[in-house]
Amino acid sequence: MRKNNWIREVSFVVLLCFFLTSLSPLSAAASLKHYVTKYRAIQVADEQQKRLSRYYYLIDYFSEFSFFKRRHKVNPDFIRALILAESNAYPRAKSNKNALGLTQITYATGKQAANELARKNIHFRYVSKKKLKNLRPNDLYNPAVNILLACYLIAKYNAQHRGKLDLVVSAWNAGEYSIINNRPAQNKETLNHIGKVNGYFIYFLNRNKRKRYRYRRY
């Protein structure tokens, strides 16, 4: 049976239509359309790619786990997009809200996720159960810890919101309870973040399509 990667793999046009038909009133849809369009053609520079590629083995490894539903896994390209949108692939990044590391996780959120993970019957390379049970703020600067927690949290939000990218990113950026009436948080920061993550995600999906096409040709 084919393994499922949560977060829909769709083109920009289809994704934009999904956004516009799932939001109301019209002003909210228009607002999100602005931010989606803003990042429609976003590119990844060589230096960004070089920094990000250092963590591909961790992204690919931790995105292989089904944390909530059997055979449902986080799309590694979404995690790559999230890292670039959050920290530009700098593992020592820190926000003015004390969000830390590659995916910018606050300690309170990270601690809760680590405790939940520690109770699951899953064993990981790179991150021990002891580390999860005794998570400290500085541990969020550890790329392995940060990416593991990000994959777990995104899987959690995917399960809650059935893979709808705008709602998943809203839960990530503005909190689990930021979604009201099946709409993402309507603040500028969150809408901008949805657009940015979406733009990077589409970039990586299209890049992989081009790679597959070249492979078939030769």
Plain-language structure description:
The protein has 218 residues and is mainly alpha-helical. The chain has one domain (4-21, 35-205): Lysozyme, CATH 1.10.530.10. Helices cover 59% and strands 5% of the residues. It is built from ten helices and four strands; from the N terminus they run βααααβαββααααα. The longest helix has 30 residues, at 188-217.
Question: What keywords describe this structure?
Answer:
59% helix; 5% strand; mainly alpha; two-stranded parallel sheet; Lysozyme; 218 residues
Helix content: 55-70%
Q: Spatial order of the strands in the main sheet?
A: 1-2
Number of helices: 10
CATH class assignment:
Mainly Alpha
Mean pLDDT: 86
Structural class: mainly alpha
**In terms of per-residue confidence, which ranges show pLDDT below 50 for 5 or more consecutive residues?**
8-27
Instruction: Note the beta-strand portion.
Output: under 5%
Query: Given the C-alpha coordinates, what overall shape results?
Result: globular
Number of domains: 1
Q: Please report the total strand number as a whole number.
A: 4
Second-tier CATH architecture: Orthogonal Bundle
| Terminal CA distance | 28 Å
**What is the CATH topology descriptor?**
Lysozyme
Element layout with pairings:
Blueprint: E1 4-6, H1 12-22, H2 26-38, H3 46-53, H4 56-62, E2 72-74, H5 76-87, E3 99-100, E4 105-106, H6 107-119, H7 129-133, H8 143-161, H9 165-174, H10 188-217
